[in-house]
């Protein structure tokens, strides 16, 4: 099997920024710039989000490492973690200078790390502080400032809690709220359990849209297929998908076609060839190891004969140690051989 012509990752992208109908959630340790480049190949209209980056990391750390991204990723948002208005404003300015299309404030992460740093989900208990941070960012930049949050904290399950939070924070100038429709349990559950155990209440997001029709409300949590996306879009302005987009990335192609472009139908081979070309560019220009990129592509063959061989090759430490970009194409050939054998 020879490699097909590489998919042009920019050819299908909209000329102007699309609406936030579909977005891929910020996921710590997952949605780095290599992952976002890959997802952009699959869904030209989806909004992409960075991993959460703390204001302290931007003030004291390696800014290029944290902020650099590929031009093909647009529209792309920078998600910040922090609570000090001055530091948030400084970080937002950096994000705008680097070319991001949106600044998003994390008020939903429940891990102990963010609790110790007084940001993430625990900020929902301090709506006035969040409002002030949002206002500082809105005053500092000309791009949208948005907020991602939960519907409640611990055992607080009243809709009034999230309604009052959104109402207060909107006074700071945020017009877009991304609602993870679960409570965040700050004690007793791990971050993973916080994504699965607290019950989903999509009706809270729907009620927020009813109570704040002037705001853009996007819902996140447990959404796994196109019918679920369409059901939520009947209630709110947009949908954000996390784990399903990462664990079954080919679903993004279906969602792109179903929501934006019925003719959107790249082949998996075209996408793999584009990722090989990306690996070559990254290795040539930055010395990026192949393993840092191909880890995001492991689930591309899900449901196909040879998927296990594909994943095995791209997870083999010995093969990855000094791998060249064509390792990805060699791994994909295992899928082709298996498919032909099964025919």
Describe this structure in words.
The protein is 46% helix and 14% strand. An 8-stranded parallel barrel has the order 1-2-4-5-6-7-8-9, surrounded by 7 helices. The longest helix has 19 residues.
CATH architectural category of the largest domain: Alpha-Beta Barrel
Order of helices and strands: EHEEHHEHEHHEHEHHEHEHHHHHHH
CATH class membership of the largest domain: Alpha Beta
Cα shape? globular
Number of domains: 2
CATH level-4 homologous superfamily of the largest domain: Aldolase class I
Query: Helix/strand/pairing class, anyone?
Result: alpha/beta
Helix content: 40-55%
| Widest sheet: strand ordering | 1-2-4-5-6-7-8-9
Please report the distance between the alpha carbons of the first and last residues: 16 Å
Beta-strand fraction estimate: 5-15%
Q: What is the radius of gyration?
A: 20 Å
What does the main sheet amount to? 8 strands, parallel, barrel
Element layout with pairings:
Blueprint (H helix, E strand, L loop, with lengths): L21 E3 L8 H10 L4 E3 L3 E2 H6 L2 H5 L8 E6 L3 H14 L3 E6 L4 H5 L10 H14 L4 E9 L5 H12 L5 E9 L6 H4 L7 H10 L4 E5 L5 H8 L4 E4 L1 H5 L3 H9 L8 H19 L3 H5 L12 H9 L1 H5 L4 H17 L1
Parallel strand pairs: 1-2, 1-9, 2-4, 3-4, 4-5, 5-6, 6-7, 7-8, 8-9
Helix pairs in contact: 4-6, 6-7, 13-17, 15-17
InterPro entries: Aldolase_TIM, DUS-like_FMN-bd, DUS_fam, DusA, tRNA_hU_synthase_CS
Protein name: tRNA-dihydrouridine(20/20a) synthase
Family: Belongs to the dus family. Belongs to the Dus family. DusA subfamily.
């Amino acid at each position: 099997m020879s490699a097909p012509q590489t998919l042009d990752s920019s050819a299908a992208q909209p000329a102007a920024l699309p609406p936030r109908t579909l977005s891929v959630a910020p996921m710590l340790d997952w949605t780095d710039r290599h992952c976002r480049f890959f997802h952009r190949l699959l869904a030209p209209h989806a909004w992409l989000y960075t991993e959460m980056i703390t204001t302290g990391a931007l003030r004291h750390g390696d800014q290029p490492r944290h902020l650099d991204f590929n031009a093909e990723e647009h529209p792309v948002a920078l998600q910040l973690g922090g609570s000090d208005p001055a530091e948030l404003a400084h970080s937002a300015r950096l994000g705008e200078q680097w070319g991001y299309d949106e600044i998003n404030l994390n008020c939903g992460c429940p891990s102990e790390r963010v609790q110790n740093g007084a940001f993430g989900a625990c900020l929902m208990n301090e709506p006035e502080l969040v409002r002030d941070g949002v206002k500082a960012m809105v005053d500092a930049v000309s791009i949208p400032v948005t907020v991602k949050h939960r519907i409640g904290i611990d055992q607080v399950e009243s809709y009034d809690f999230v309604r009052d939070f959104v109402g207060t924070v909107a006074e700071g100038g945020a017009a877009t709220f991304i609602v993870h429709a679960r409570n965040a349990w700050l004690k007793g559950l791990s971050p993973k359990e916080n994504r699965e155990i607290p019950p989903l209440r999509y009706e809270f997001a729907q009620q927020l849209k009813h109570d704040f029709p002037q705001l853009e409300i996007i819902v996140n949590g447990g959404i796994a297929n196109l019918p679920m996306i369409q059901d939520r879009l009947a209630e709110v302005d947009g949908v954000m998908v996390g784990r399903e987009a990462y664990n079954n990335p080919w679903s993004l192609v279906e969602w792109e076609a179903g929501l934006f472009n019925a003719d959107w139908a790249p082949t998996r081979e075209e996408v793999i060839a584009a990722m090989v070309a990306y690996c070559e560019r990254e290795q040539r220009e930055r010395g990026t190891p192949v393993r840092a990129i191909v880890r995001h592509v492991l689930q591309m063959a899900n449901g196909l004969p040879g998927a296990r061989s594909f994943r095995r090759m791209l997870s083999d430490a010995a093969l990855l140690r000094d791998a060249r970009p064509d390792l990805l194409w060699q791994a994909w050939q295992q899928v082709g051989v298996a498919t032909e054998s099964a025919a």
